[in-house]
Amino acid sequence: MPLLDVRDLRVEFPTRHGVLTALHDVSFSVDKGERLGIVGESGAGKSVAAFAILNLLSRPGRITGGRILFEDRDLATLSRADMRAIRGDRISMIFQDPMMTLNPVLTIGTQMVETLKAHRDISDAEARRIAIQRLGEVKIPSPEKRMASYPHELSGGMRQRVVIAIALLTEPALIIADEPTTALDVTIQAEIMSLMLDLCRTHGVGLILITHDLAVVSQVTQRVVVLYAGRVVESGQTARVVQNPVHPYTRGLLSALPGEGEPGARLNQIRGSMPPLTAIPPGCAFHPRCDYAEERCRVGVPPLDVIEDHNVRCTRARELIRGVAA
């Protein structure tokens, strides 16, 4: 049985313009210790999926269908008190900006000790010992001294290491990392991702990595889910999806990577942009941006089809594999 099993998840936002659907019957699973990537541009629904798992959807957002089974409990049906016992304990989350996560007026040590004591019946001394140990695991020098530091006294990379240490405090079964390196420079990004990978392997923690960067996903995750306009358009083993992408959107994301273009040439890009929830086109939502779109792509939403160990939502997928699509 998977550690986390999300099935047919549907999230809606009632507005004055009508009910807007942010996620359409999204399904994925994470086994114990497994690393899953959720990929897509801004507006694809990646963060909404993460917030739905943790019951952190901003109002008026609501789950209107599907189930979220975690350790054999449906998180979508739990009370607020039961959900608080899981959030931050069995499931931890790492957000994009550590300065939005950490309290600027409390020391790192105070925040870590309070986090532990909120979920464990332990003494201050024991909580402090565990906190120092976790800071050491994330490669923070002089962890005892850093316990007395305030967030603004640390660099961006150090702050994100602290956030990772806090996420590991309660020895969670699953960590959800939402664009954890977006606010960092490139060299620090690589260090943080390598650190997260090592820690997940060491602690046997499952990881959901939310990102727009397929290059990062290819290095860190074992399976990947590609979202577009709130729907899964492709999923499968990361290596197979990256090496042999089927859906035109996945192919576009990969071709847009800096290393895919000719030296000195303009970077490849997918024309157009992600449609807003108020203007999702009929049929396949990607068809206005797709080089292979036909009239049938504009009529109905294609079902997920299993092709070469991928789940693909494209009416022309088999033609694309054979190289006959034009």
From TrEMBL:
Residues 4-254 form the ABC transporter domain. It is a peripheral membrane protein. It is found in: Cell inner membrane. GO terms for molecular function: ATP binding; ATP hydrolysis activity. Keywords: ATP-binding, Cell membrane, Membrane, Nucleotide-binding, Transport. It comes from the Bacteria. Gene3D superfamilies: P-loop containing nucleotide triphosphate hydrolases (3.40.50.300). The keyword Membrane applies. The keyword Magnesium does not apply. InterPro entries: AAA+_ATPase (IPR003593), ABC_Ni/Peptide_Import (IPR050388), ABC_transporter-like_ATP-bd (IPR003439), ABC_transporter-like_CS (IPR017871), Oligopep_ABC_C (IPR013563), P-loop_NTPase (IPR027417). Its main location: membrane. GO terms for cellular component: plasma membrane. GO terms for biological process: peptide transport; transmembrane transport. Belongs to the ABC transporter superfamily. This is ABC transporter ATP-binding protein. It comes from Roseospira marina. The lineage of its organism: Bacteria, Pseudomonadati, Pseudomonadota, Alphaproteobacteria, Rhodospirillales.
